[in-house]
């Protein structure tokens, strides 16, 4: 009997190749498990090739490591057949572990098929030697090799199935499993080799026509390692790309969630906004229609929020709104919705068992709002006015319900605030009128429906005109001429006061330029600024633009701001007023005496004029307190070096009293009514003629 031997180096290399092939197979099962459609079949085909080449190369290198006293070679077709068997067996294994489930019976059958395939590859490779006489196999070792092949296949299939998902430490687990699988495959091969007996005088029939020669082992090794490395590298790169794709997908999902949050929620309080509220109302209406039941919609507007915001600043106002939102949410159930739809306006959607339950909920919310709020060390007191609508009954759409709830809220405010009011159909007329007026107001600028009327100002001592105050009027196509008290509040609430205010500035400067060219260079045109205009960042630029556009000297323009507006944020007001003063514009503190001025700030304001409120002038003849207040205001203005203007002069007694006190100029119906520019000048000319005669 011929005694064979092994090259230790090649035997060790065959073990390394088996371990690498096992790891590649385990990694490829992970690729196949996560792939979908055509990609899964491509990975399966590529994996079968790489795994088959790896197992076969381990076998072939092991065969090359085997040495007999005679020369050996391998039959080409049989060797290629053994490679094909290895590839097909590997493909079957990868297909099996890619299934959703791997029950015990399926695992056993798969192990038998794969074990048979590996055994067939091995013994087909042995047959490629074409030994004469044939190889005699020891039955015990031969059976052991088959058992090892089936057992190794079962273990390999189970491990591959368990480790196909990417879990924490999966690569470490695959490495350990690859070592075990590699040892099992090598054990099967060398057990099969140990079962082979070669008779004395045997010779290799493939010698001469088969594969042989020096360097064949190196060629097989390099080729197999290249195939395995390419497959493994491709798998690793794909895994990294998949991981990055997963991270990108998570980032996109998170960004999408954030966009949805921003689109549907109020950024200040985190409450649902108007868009999400409308959807919740629609859902509640559908539920009530389909299942019965009812709900209430409560429009909540804070009473006294604006004075807090004005007195302490917007930062404190924002904090207060957050506290209001937290308190309103205290008693809410999961099926209720609280939304903030703008400013200090909230809407509460409450599911009700009975319509009468709405009264208890509304009373509770009013009571909660009347309790003090502790904000930044201050105890702030506000209240709330609630308008309530019920569904079914008070509207057919979300928009109609909200409009009716808004109308009921305004009714509650008109009834004294700090309370609630249920919607009544009679309220709808006013709500619709306000809505129509708002729509008309948006078109008024575009359609040039605004007009300026001018009320003259006269020198108190000489009685000569010294200028005029520009007063806004709206020539409504249906309602006729509307005074500011009919629409200014609405304009401020919607922000339309900014473009309207810019138009007033521009038109007043245009008219004053005409009078300036007519010889009235000593006149001043006065324009009122609303609180919203004064806080607007573009005010200084708007004033500068109007003056430059009409080539009007800055001191021909007087800007009137109320005392309350000037004192709202005194430091910020100081900065804006200083810019206007540096420009050369005259500044007047309007309605003086009605606010809460700090004399320390007042003396620092770059104002040129104080304007006494008409409320004090009106009762001069009958109220000694008003006379005393007017006297004090005049004395204060004179001490500060300011011009004093009194408005609302309607009687000779008022004119004489104010003139004696030392007022610089007077304004009122006694002296002249507000008129359009043409009639205004006609009136001035008439007064001139009377004075001349």
Q: Looking at CATH, which topology of the largest domain would you report?
A: TIM Barrel
* End-to-end gap: 156 Å
The biggest sheet amounts to: 8 strands, mixed, barrel
Strand order of the largest sheet: 14-15-17-18-19-20-21-22
- Tell me the number of helical segments per DSSP (H or I, 4 or more residues long): 24
What is the name of the CATH architecture of the largest domain? Alpha-Beta Barrel
What is the helical fraction, as a range of percent? Answer: 55-70%
CATH superfamily of the largest domain: EAL domain
What value does the Rg take, in angstroms? 47 Å
Please report the total strand number as a whole number.
22
Tally of separate domains = 3
Percent of residues in beta strands = 15-25%
What global shape is seen?
A: elongated
Short characterization:
The chain is an alpha/beta fold.
Label this structure with key terms.
about 700 residues; alpha/beta; Alpha-Beta Plaits; 8-stranded mixed β-barrel; elongated
Can you describe this structure?
- The structure is a single chain.
- The chain has 3 domains: 5-243, no CATH class; 274-423, Reverse transcriptase/Diguanylate cyclase domain (Alpha-Beta Plaits), CATH 3.30.70; 449-692, TIM Barrel (Alpha-Beta Barrel), CATH 3.20.20.
- Helices cover 59% and strands 16% of the residues.
- It has 24 helices and 22 strands.
- It has an 8-stranded mixed β-barrel, surrounded by 5 helices. A 5-stranded mixed sheet has the order 8-9-7-12-13, with helices on both faces.
- It is elongated and about 155 Å long.
């Amino acid at each position: 009997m011929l005694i064979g031997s092994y090259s230790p180096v090649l035997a060790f290399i065959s073990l390394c190749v088996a371990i690498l092939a096992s790891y590649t197979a385990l990694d490829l099962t992970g690729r196949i498990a996560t792939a979908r459609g055509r990609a899964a079949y491509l990975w399966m085909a590529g994996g079968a090739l790489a795994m088959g080449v790896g197992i076969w190369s381990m076998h072939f290198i092991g065969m090359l490591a085997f040495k007999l006293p005679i020369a050996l070679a391998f039959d080409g077709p049989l060797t290629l057949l053994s490679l094909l068997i290895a590839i097909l067996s590997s493909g079957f294994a990868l297909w099996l572990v890619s299934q959703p489930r791997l029950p015990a019976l399926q695992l056993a059958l798969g192990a038998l098929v794969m074990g048979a395939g590996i055994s067939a590859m091995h013994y087909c490779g042995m047959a490629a030697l074409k030994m004469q006489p044939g190889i005699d196999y020891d039955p015990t070792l031969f059976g052991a090799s088959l058992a090892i092949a089936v057992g190794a296949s079962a273990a390999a299939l189970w491990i591959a199935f368990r480790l196909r998902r990417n879990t924490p430490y999966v690569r470490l687990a695959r490495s350990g499993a690859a070592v075990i699988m590699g040892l099992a495959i090598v054990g099967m091969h060398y057990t099969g080799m140990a079962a082979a007996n070669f008779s004395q005088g045997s010779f290799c029939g493939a010698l001469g026509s088969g594969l042989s020669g020096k360097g064949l082992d190196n060629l097989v090794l390099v080729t197999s390692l290249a195939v395995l490395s390419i497959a493994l590298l491709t798998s690793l790169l794909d895994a990294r790309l998949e991981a990055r794709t997963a991270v990108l997908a998570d980032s996109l999902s998170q960004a999408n969630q954030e966009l949805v949050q921003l689109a549907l929620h109020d950024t200040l309080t985190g409450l649902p906004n108007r868009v999400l509220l409308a959807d919740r109302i629609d859902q509640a209406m559908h539920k009530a229609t389909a299942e019965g039941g009812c709900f209430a919609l409560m429009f909540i507007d804070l009473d006294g929020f604006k004075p807090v915001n004005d007195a302490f600043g917007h930062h404190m106002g924002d904090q207060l709104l957050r506290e209001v939102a937290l308190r309103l949410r205290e008693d809410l159930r999961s099926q209720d919705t609280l939304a903030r739809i703008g400013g200090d306006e909230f809407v509460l959607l409450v599911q009700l068992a009975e319509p009468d339950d709405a009264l208890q909920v509304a009373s509770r919310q009013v009571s909660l709002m009347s309790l003090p709020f502790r904000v930044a060390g201050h105890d702030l007191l506000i209240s709330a006015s609630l308008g309530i609508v019920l569904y079914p009954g008070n509207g057919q759409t979300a928009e109609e319900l909200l409009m009716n709830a808004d109308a009921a809220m305004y009714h509650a405010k008109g009834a004294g605030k700090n309370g609630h009011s249920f919607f009544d159909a009679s309220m709808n007329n006013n709500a619709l009128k306000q809505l129509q007026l708002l729509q008309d107001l948006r078109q008024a600028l575009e359609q040039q429906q605004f007009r300026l009327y001018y009320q003259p100002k006269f020198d108190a001592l000489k009685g000569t005109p010294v200028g005029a105050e520009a007063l806004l009027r709206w020539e409504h196509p249906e309602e006729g001429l509307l005074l500011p008290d009919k629409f200014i509040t609405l304009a401020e609430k919607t922000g339309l006061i900014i473009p309207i205010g810019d138009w007033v500035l521009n038109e007043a400067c245009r008219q004053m330029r005409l009078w300036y060219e007519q010889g009235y260079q000593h006149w001043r045109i006065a324009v009122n600024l609303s609180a919203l205009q004064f806080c607007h960042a573009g005010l200084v630029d708007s004033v500068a633009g109007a003056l430059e556009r009409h080539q009007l000297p800055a001191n021909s323009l007087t800007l009137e701001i109320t005392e309350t507006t000037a004192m709202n944020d005194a430091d910020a007001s100081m900065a804006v007023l200083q810019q206007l003063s540096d420009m050369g514009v005259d500044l007047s503190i309007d309605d003086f005496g009605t606010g809460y001025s700090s004399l320390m700030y007042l003396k620092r304001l770059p104002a040129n004029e104080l304007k006494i409120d008409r409320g004090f002038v009106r009762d001069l003849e009958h109220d000694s307190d008003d006379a005393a207040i007017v006297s004090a205001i005049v004395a204060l203005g004179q001490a500060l070096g300011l011009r004093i203007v009194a408005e609302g002069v309607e009687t000779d007694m008022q004119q004489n009293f104010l003139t004696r006190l030392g007022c610089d100029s007077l304004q009122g119906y006694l002296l002249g009514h507000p008129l359009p520019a043409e009639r205004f000048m006609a009136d001035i000319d008439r007064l001139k003629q009377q004075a001349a005669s």
